[in-house]
Amino acid sequence: MRPFIGITVNYETVNVIGRATNLGTEGQDWNYLAGDYVYAIERAGGVPVLIPRCEDEEDLVPLLEKLDGVLVSGGHDVRPLTYGERMRGECGPVVPERDAYDVFVSRWCLEHGKPLLGICRGVQIMNAAFGGTVYQDLEKDGGFAAHSLINSPRNAAAHSVAIKEGSLLREIFGPSLMVNSFHHQAVKDLALCARAVAFSEDGVIEACEFSGGHPFCLAVQWHPEMMFDSAEQQKLFSAFVRACGPDHEGARQ
């Protein structure tokens, strides 16, 4: 049986989507997701299931119980209050409702042993959910070079990452990897259960593995789903879907 993989979605309270597409009407909010995530899971052999943002996060539990794994997708900046800081001017737009939803889903999956994969914002919100912090802006807050390289095609590699020995990520990719880069925030102080397992050339944490849950609890800072023509990047999704298969403890009955 193909594993069911839940994917968290973006949430928007402003009707920009409806206006741009001539759908709906003023006053509506939106749950939405880029198709790249769906296709990457589908190509890896999983059945993608979008996890809606509910008014009460507890209403998601019956769905989460039926899923074989969860992908925490990218999106808006993480709200600094999520990790105990005051917002400064360098932080971009935030969506508090999505932060609460992603924190709930991440913590529930860790506590219940569900395989977890985070992408871009995913590594930031997972680290924050488990007790870590985030750079509000890599350049202004951390003194790093720009990592939001929006002038580059989404599937084009922008820099390399070095991957630590003894990590799950190293088993998947080997010692190094070329990746794309579309972020201005990143993991700062690691959660107690987090281990940094990949770094950019200038020292930005590019991947974390988290203990205390399923053995596959991994998040990366780049966007492998956008590198749709890369067989190398697809290895991450294939490894994730395999970990979500029928043999893993707690798999859907």
- Helix count, DSSP H or I runs of 4 or more residues: 8
Radius of gyration: 17 Å
CATH topology: Rossmann fold
For the record, what is the CATH homologous superfamily label? Class I glutamine amidotransferase (GATase) domain
Average pLDDT confidence is 94
Helix-strand string: EEHEHEHEHEHEHEHEEEEEH
Architecture (CATH level 2) name: 3-Layer(aba) Sandwich
The tally of strands reads: 13
Helix-and-strand structural type? alpha/beta
Model regions low in confidence, pLDDT < 50 over at least 5 residues: none
- Please give the largest β-sheet: 9 strands, mixed
- Strand line-up of the largest beta sheet: 4-1-5-6-13-12-11-8-9
Shape: globular
CATH class: Alpha Beta
Which bin fits the share of residues in helices?
A: 25-40%
> Kindly, what is the distance between the CA atoms of the first and last residues, rounded to a whole number of angstroms?
11 Å
What percentage of amino acids are in beta strands? 15-25%
**Overall domain count:** 1
